[in-house]
Amino acid sequence: MLTPLLEKLLILQDRDGKRLGLEARLKAVPAEVAEVEKKIASEKAAIEEARAGLRQLEADKKLVETEIGSAETTLAKYRTQQLQVRKNDEYQALGLQIEAAQKAIGALEERELQVMYAIDEAKKKFADAEALLKRNITGHEARIRTLRELETNLAAELETARADVAAARGPVDEPALKIYDRIAARQMPVCVPVRGGKCGGCHLKVSSEVESAVRGKGDGKLATCDQCGRIVWWDAA
Ligand SMILES: [Zn+2]
Questions:
Q1: With contact defined as beta carbons under 8 Å apart, do 10 and 2 qualify?
Q2: 219 CA from centroid of ligand 1 (Å)
Q3: How far is the CA of 230 from the centre of ligand 1 (A)?
Q4: For 220, which DSSP code?
Q5: How far does the centroid of ligand 1 lie from the alpha carbon of residue 11, in Å?
Q6: Strand 198-199 to 223-224 pairing
Q7: Residue 169 Cα to ligand 1 middle (Å)
Q8: pLDDT, position 212
Q9: Residue partners of 13: CB distance under 8 A and separation at least 6
Q10: In what order do the strands lie in the sheet with 191-195?
Q11: Interior CA angle at 85 toward 84 and 88, to 5°?
Q12: More confidently predicted of 65 and 220
């Protein structure tokens, strides 16, 4: 049986539950915004990384080209010298140097090719990273806007919910509020029905003392579950 006091407490509990739900949702919003911002930042970082990689490779290519240029100058110099020498051993020595220079140029050209392939890859990577951000950014920004709107709405709803809670507390007497608040600080719901001898909060059997206390005594005193401490009321249904 629901006493008038319990009816008031159930209204308070209902409004408190709503308030707590709103508080929890409101508290979760900044983390959700941060999550989206993290995604944007990581997509931008991927672009920057790809851009830096591409720049490095282009610098590498220039360096190899310079090295090829100077190796070719050296080679041309050896060839000119070879035409001018008279002695056979000098001619042969220059021949070896020419061979070595040609080998070095071959290796440099091989490296240049590798760098060029790498540049193609890096360009693709850069374009992919840019496309990904471009594809996602509208969605990311819309999500953040939605979350900000949600935050504003929840804050307004919470204000109303808190006023509703305050209004529900008004008609409840001080000692009952004290018991209610003590339990509410620990666990929700505070007021639960006893059905079939079991507490609706912890689902354990209440003692016969508690059971007889809640069975329609209607003396205005609150009975609590001897297992979990919640306020209990008898529900014959
Ligand atoms: Zn209980």
A1: yes
A2: 21
A3: 6
A4: S
A5: 20
A6: unpaired
A7: 23
A8: 86
A9: 180, 184, 188, 189, 190, 191
A10: 198-199, 191-195, 231-234, 223-224
A11: 145
A12: 65
pLDDT greater than 60 at residue 218: no
What is the reported pTM? 0.72
How far is Cα 207 from Cα 120, in angstroms, rounded to an integer?
A: 79
CA distance 53 to 120: 11
Name the band, by pLDDT with cuts 50, 70 and 90, for residue 173: very high
Q: Residues with Cβ within 5 Å of ion ligand 1?
A: 199, 201-202, 225, 227-228
Nearest to 213 by CA among 223, 198, 226, 225: 223
Please give the structure tokens belonging to residue 127: 């374009």
Q: What share of the chain is helix, strand, coil (3-state, %, to 5)?
A: 75, 5, 20
What does the pLDDT look like over 7-36, one tens digit per residue?
A: 999 999 999 999 999 999 999 999 999 999
CA 224 to ligand 1 center in whole angstroms: 8
Q: Position of tokens 């579950």?
A: 225
Cα–Cα distance, 139 to 162 (Å, whole number): 34
Closest to 47 (Cα-Cα) out of 149, 156, 120, 126: 126
Q: By C-alpha distance, which of 165, 183, 173 is closest to 229?
A: 183
Distance 205 CA to ligand 1 centre (A): 8
Between CA 157 and CA 150 the distance in angstroms is 10
Cis peptide before 193 (omega within 30 of 0): no
